[in-house]
Amino acid sequence: MEQKDQQEILTLGIESSCDETSAAVLKGGRDVLSNIISTQIPIHQKFGGVVPEIASRKHIVNIMPVIDEAVREAGVELGDIDQVAVTYGPGLVGALLVGVSAGKSLAYALDVPLIGVNHLEGHIFANFLSDTALEPPFMALVVSGGHTALVDVRGYNEFRMMGQTRDDAAGEAFDKIARVMGLPYPGGPRIDALAKEGNHLAIDFPRALEEKGNYEFSFSGLKSAVLNYINSENMKGHELNKADIAASFQHSVIEVLTHKAFEAVAEAGRDTLVLAGGVAANSGLEARLREEAGKHGVKFSYPSKILCTDNAAMIACRGYYQAQAGLYSDHYLNAVPGLTLTDK
Ligand code: KG4
Ligand code: ZN
Q: Which residues pair with 15 in a beta bridge?
């Protein structure tokens, strides 16, 4: 493998941290040959959220067919794969273990290196696939179902955590509020669509930790405020204006994220901001960040919708850059459900 041109290296990526079973083949660092995603969303929708035990079982059923399809669609053979990158955390332990076991088995059977990938770093690296000219350093705003964080990406393997959420993640708040409004799981896209029809100034919801220099987030107060508002409207017998609630709630989240992101960009002296994680698919957030980036003369980039939510191409990309720095895993690699994004 030493002899192989870096641009020709084939990385198989595997992702199974939550409710998507995904496998991808990447050529070099940024050329996505395939990115197969088998989503379990319709299965979990009946329960209003992801049921961990069901997720693990579905991953077991799906993982090998998804890997086979990724290899086939890439037009290669399993034996051509040079390295295997797999998400080992954070996520649901049972779900993660399915991907980790498959990744370890394949790396062993093919006698190729194994690379354990942090899912959150993977979300950031989705940007390298959408914007192939993107290079560090840049500031990353990571907003997913489980995490909200500002990360200063100083190099491919050098990160500084500027701040993260103290309680709920942004996506979690979207999902919980949608659930109370009777909207199906996952709530983010539903609120996003509903918000377009509402007035974002109709209800003044709180914005937490807005003081200068604070890069931590808190969405539990906002979540409670929205839930209290809905309860009090119900008690008064008023009909809920769901579009106004969605627009006002989303506005409050977007303003906090935007304000902190550009403060962090300025503090770190960066000229580029990237968006990452499932909530990056939010059209209101993307539009607001783009507008603000224009005002500050900051370059703004975000992944295409399919690369925003969970997928294995972003895991393969992260794995490729880890491998370049020799950051491999051994076959004792285990799932780490509470894995965090720390300074490196
Ligand atoms: O990154 P992701 O696919 O999974 C995690 O790693 O958590 O993020 C899923 C989250 C869910 O909370 C979902 O509601 C949210 O991303 N999401 C959105 C949108 N699309 C997905 N939130 C707001 N607006 C959207 N358009
Ligand atoms: Zn994710």
A: 22
Index of the ligand 1 atom closest to the CA of residue 178: 14
Residue closest via CA to ligand 1's atom 2 equals: 278
Tokens 């909207």: give the residue: 183
**What's the topology of domain 136-302?**
Nucleotidyltransferase; domain 5 (3.30.420)
pLDDT per residue, tens digit, the chain (344 aa), is 456 899 999 999 999 999 899 999 999 999 999 999 998 888 888 888 888 989 899 999 999 999 999 999 999 999 999 999 999 999 999 999 999 999 999 999 999 999 999 999 999 999 999 999 999 999 999 999 889 999 999 999 999 999 999 999 999 999 999 999 999 988 999 999 999 999 999 999 988 887 888 999 999 999 999 999 999 999 999 999 999 999 999 999 999 999 999 999 999 999 999 999 999 999 999 999 999 999 999 999 999 999 999 999 999 999 999 999 999 999 999 999 999 888 78
Ligand 1 near 113 CB (within 6 A): no
Pocket lining: 144 vs ligand 1, CB cutoff 6 Å: yes
Class of domain 6-126+308-324: alpha beta
Helix (H) or strand (E) holding 144: none
Q: What is the pTM of this model?
A: 0.94
Strands 138-143 and 114-118: unpaired
| Ligand 1 centroid, distance to 278 Cα (angstroms) | 3
Please check whether the two domains, 6-126+308-324 and 136-302, share a CATH topology: yes
Can you give the C-alpha Rg of the chain in angstroms?
A: 20
The residues placing their C-beta within 5 Å of ligand 2, an ion, are 144, 310
Question: Is the shortest distance between the CB of 277 and ligand 1 below 6 Å?
Answer: yes
Residue 90 beta carbon below 6 angstroms from any ligand 1 atom = no
Domain layout of the chain by residue ranges: 6-126+308-324, 136-302
Instruction: Give the residue among 184, 186, 130 at the shortest CA–CA distance from 305.
Output: 130
CA distance 178 to 167: 18
Q: Ligand 2 centroid to 55 CA: how many Å?
A: 15
